[in-house]
Amino acid sequence: MANNSFIVIVGCGRVGSHLANKLSGEGNSLVVIDINESTFDNLTAEFSGFRLIGDATQVGLLREAKLQRADTLIATTHDDNVNLMVAQVARNMFKTPLVMARVFDPRREQVYKRLGIRTICPTSVAASLFLDILEGEAVRREEPTA
Amino acid sequence: MRVIIVGGGKALYFLGRNFASKGYEAAIVNKDPGECRRLARDLSVEIICGDGSDEHVLEQAGARRADAVLAITPRDQDNLVICQLASLQFGVPRTVALANDPDNVEVFEALGVSAFSTTNIVGSLIEQHAALEEITNLLPVGEGRVNVTEIVLSSDAPVVDRPLKDIRLPENTLVAVVIRGGDPLVPRGDSVLRGGDTVVLITLPENHGAALKALTGEGR
To answer: Which ranges of A2-121 does DSSP label H, i.e. alpha helix?
Structure first.
């Protein structure tokens, strides 16, 4: 990925702030939105972007974040429905080229994949990683006898 | 008709009561166990306690055979997802979302969900009915492209005691009927308007304000 993208991140919790610190440190332009000002404490010295306090489900705030000029939007709040709404608004109204949303509920994830939203489901990802390890262990135990 | 209403508060209670009394098969989805218990006690409709934006809860509420889903929670993001799940996953033919933020009416429509805003509705009702005391009735016809307005002329209105043909009204304005002392009359160019007359005015929305101003002399 080129390091001169304009990226808007919604939600500045653990995942959002981690992404924001890293992507800003790599030279991208960042705007981070969170409804709760104290979450901006998660941003480190690496971060040199803009902080915006407010509710990202209000279109006015996304306009203030200059989403119309952004290359990428990442919705990482802990609320699936906020992420899904913001992602759809970005994709359909602001025509943001790359839109990603965190969605905890695997069933909801399936529906929105069909609507063209790139979703990451931490629940499914964690479960499949656990399964990979389990299967790896099973193979290892079988090897000596095989 | 089977209607699922997702939300809470007084609006939900009265909607549920209203639908039940009309003989609709209504189901209510609400997150709060305490409110669910009260609703179950006061209403004779099915109550499902859970998150309406969860597919399983919608299914439990009978979304597969529902004719309409109405999402009126205080959170716009929930209302959007509820309606989208109902229509995408269960093929519910009619879904309507409350937009608490009036700007979200446009957003929801752009995302394919029918929406309404109580702020907009109440706001326009107030503008239509309360801005001028003389305006006693206003009815949009032709899908809102035509206004029919009833105005009581005060005796100091600029148009009284003058024949209609001498009164300059904006384009696309018609004084259709004058009601004087309870008797309706269809005015002609030489008819003279009087104080106390009730005038039924037909206008297009773009010159509605100008027409009212011409008749009453008051700015809108």
So the answer is: 14-25, 59-64, 80-92, 106-114
- Identity (one letter) of the amino acid at B40? A
Q: Which pTM was predicted?
A: 0.72
CB contact under 8 A, A108 and B53: yes
CA B190 → CA A17, B173, B187, distances in Å? 76, 17, 8
Q: What is the mean pLDDT of residues A68-81?
A: 96
The closest of B62, B17, B64 to B38, measured between CA atoms, is B17
User: What is the signed CA dihedral for B128, B133, B136, B138, rounded to 10 degrees?
Assistant: -20
Tell me the H-state helices in B33-117.
33-42, 55-60, 76-90, 104-110
pLDDT in the model for residue A144: 66
A81: nearest CB among B78, B101, B107: B78
Percent of chain A surpassing pLDDT 70:
97
pLDDT of residue B215: 84
Tell me if chain A has a CB within 8 Å of the CB of B101: yes
Q: Which residues of chain B have pLDDT under 70?
A: 127-140, 144, 218-220
pLDDT score of A145: 59
pLDDT average, residue stretch A79-83: 95
Cα distances from A108 to residues A59, A114, B48, B107, in angstroms, run 23, 10, 19, 20
User: How high is the pLDDT of residue A58?
Assistant: 92
Rounded Cα gap, residues A124 and B95, in angstroms:
30
Q: Which of A60, A95, A58, A76 is nearest to B99 (CA)?
A: A58
CA distance B108 to chain A (A): 9
Give the separation between CA A34 and CA A86, rounded to whole angstroms. Answer: 12
Taking contacts as CB-CB distances below 8 angstroms, the residues of chain A near B85 are 108, 111
Contact B24, B65 (CB under 8 A): no
Q: Quick check: B183 and B177 in contact, CB under 8 A?
A: no
Chain B contacts in chain A segment 77-96 (CB below 8 A)? 79-82, 84-85, 88-89, 92-93
ipTM of the complex in this document: 0.85
